[in-house]
C-alpha cells in the first residue's frame, strides 16, 4: 500500500499528540520534582570506617597529647636540674679555686710574719714587692720580698747596657723605669773599665763565656721559669741544664736546702763586719733580698756572714747567696735609695737586679 505525504503527516500528528499535550500540561501546571539523596552517588569511604576504629584513633591522639605534655614537663624538670647542677658546679669550682690558693696564702702569711710588717707594698700583674725594716743589735737594714707573677717582673742589666761600663743602681732603676733595684755580682777593675766577676749571664747569653768555679766563687741567678738557681759549676753543661736566664758571680754560698754552709776563714774575717747584700729563695719560689748597712768597711759595723745566715734562716729561706757588699750594697724602692750606702755616695756598678711593675 502506498502512503501519500498527507497521510504520513496525519499519522505523525496522531502519534505525537499525546506527548505534546502532556508537555503543555507540565509547563502550565504547578507540579515540581524533588530529587532525593539517593539520586546522587555517595562517598561511602567515611561510612566504611567502623565507629570503634574512629574511637581508637581519637584515643591514640589523646594519648599522644598527654605523652607530649608529660615529655615537656620532664624536659622542664631536666633543664631546671641542669641549671641547678651547673650553679652548684660553679660554686664548687670557685670554692676549690679559693681552697687551692689557701695553702700558698697561709705559707706567705707565715714567712711574712717572720720578717715583720711591710713598710711598703707594690702589686701588679708582674710582681708583688714588699719592703721591710730589719734591726739587730749590731746593724740595721732592709729586706725586700718579691713574688714574681711573670717573666717580665725581674731582669739583670749591665751598667749602661755595656760590657765594661758601670752605673749606680739608682741610675739603672731610673733608666729602665723599674720599681726597685738591688746591686748584683762582684766586679774587677781593669784600665778604667769595671767588669763583672767570673761567669755572668744576661738575657740567656754568657757575657764573656763560661768560667769553671774556682776557689769559693759561685753563680746565682734565675732560670727560664723565674726560679732562683745557684751554686758551684765545674763545666758549662752543668749550668746549661739549669737554663739560666740571667745571673752573676760572687762568694760565698750561705744556705743550701735550709742548711747553713761553712764560711771560709778568708771571707769570715775579711772584714768581720761590713755592709752586706744577700739573695735567697722560699719554697714557693719567692725571692728575699737582704741589704744591711754599716758605717764603713773596716769591720767596726755592719753584719758578719754568720749573722746573715742567721737572718736568712730565721726568715725561713731555703737557699742563700752572698752578693757584693760594702759600698756596693744598695736597695732602691719606689724611686728612692732606702738604705745608707757606706761610701756616702752611690757606687757605680757593672750589674744590677731590677724589678718591674
TrEMBL record:
Phosphodiester glycosidase domain location, by residue? 176-356
> What Pfam families does the record point to?
NAGPA
Q: Output the InterPro entries linked to this UniProt entry.
A: NAGPA (IPR018711)
PANTHER family the record matches: N-ACETYLGLUCOSAMINE-1-PHOSPHODIESTER ALPHA-N-ACETYLGLUCOSAMINIDASE
Name the record gives this protein:
Phosphodiester glycosidase domain-containing protein
| Originating species | Paenibacillus nasutitermitis
Amino acid at each position: 500500500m502506498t502512503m501519500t505525504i498527507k497521510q504520513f503527516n496525519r499519522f505523525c500528528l496522531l502519534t505525537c499528540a499525546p506527548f505534546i499535550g502532556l508537555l503543555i500540561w507540565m509547563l502550565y501546571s504547578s507540579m515540581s520534582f524533588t530529587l532525593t539523596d539517593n539520586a546522587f552517588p555517595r562517598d561511602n569511604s567515611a561510612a566504611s570506617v567502623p565507629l570503634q576504629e574512629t574511637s581508637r584513633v581519637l584515643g591514640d591522639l589523646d594519648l599522644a597529647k598527654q605523652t607530649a605534655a608529660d615529655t615537656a614537663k620532664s624536659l622542664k624538670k631536666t633543664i631546671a636540674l641542669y641549671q641547678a647542677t651547673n650553679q652548684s658546679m660553679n660554686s664548687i669550682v670557685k670554692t676549690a679555686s679559693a681552697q687551692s690558693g689557701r695553702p700558698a696564702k697561709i705559707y706567705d702569711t707565715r714567712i711574712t710574719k717572720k720578717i715583720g710588717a711591710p713598710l711598703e707594698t707594690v702589686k701588679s700583674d708582674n710582681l708583688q714587692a714588699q719592703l721591710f725594716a730589719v734591726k739587730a743589735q749590731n746593724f740595721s737594714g732592709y729586706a725586700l720580698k718579691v713574688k714574681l707573677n711573670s717573666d717580665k717582673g725581674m731582669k739583670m742589666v749591665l751598667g749602661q747596657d755595656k760590657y765594661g761600663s758601670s752605673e749606680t743602681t739608682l741610675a739603672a732603676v731610673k733608666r729602665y723605669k723599674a720599681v726597685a733595684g738591688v746591686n748584683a755580682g762582684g766586679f774587677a777593675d781593669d784600665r778604667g773599665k769595671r767588669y763583672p766577676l767570673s761567669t755572668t749571664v744576661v738575657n740567656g747569653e754568657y757575657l764573656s763565656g763560661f768560667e769553671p768555679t774556682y776557689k769559693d766563687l759561685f753563680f746565682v741567678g734565675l732560670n727560664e721559669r723565674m726560679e732562683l738557681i745557684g751554686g758551684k759549676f765545674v763545666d758549662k753543661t752543668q749550668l746549661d741544664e739549669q737554663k739560666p736566664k740571667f745571673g752573676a758571680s760572687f762568694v760565698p754560698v750561705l744556705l743550701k736546702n735550709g742548711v747553713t754552709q761553712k764560711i771560709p776563714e778568708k771571707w769570715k774575717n775579711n772584714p768581720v763586719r761590713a755592709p752586706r747584700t744577700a739573695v735567697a729563695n722560699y719554697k714557693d719560689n719567692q725571692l728575699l733580698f737582704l741589704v744591711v748597712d754599716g758605717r764603713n768597711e773596716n769591720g767596726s759595723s755592719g753584719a758578719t756572714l754568720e749573722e746573715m745566715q742567721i737572718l736568712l734562716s730565721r726568715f725561713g729561706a731555703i737557699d742563700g747567696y752572698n752578693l757584693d757588699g760594702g759600698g756596693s750594697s744598695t736597695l732602691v724602692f719606689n724611686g728612692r735609695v732606702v738604705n745608707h750606702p757606706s761610701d756616702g755616695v752611690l757606687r757605680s756598678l757593672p750589674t744590677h737586679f731590677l724589678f718591674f711593675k
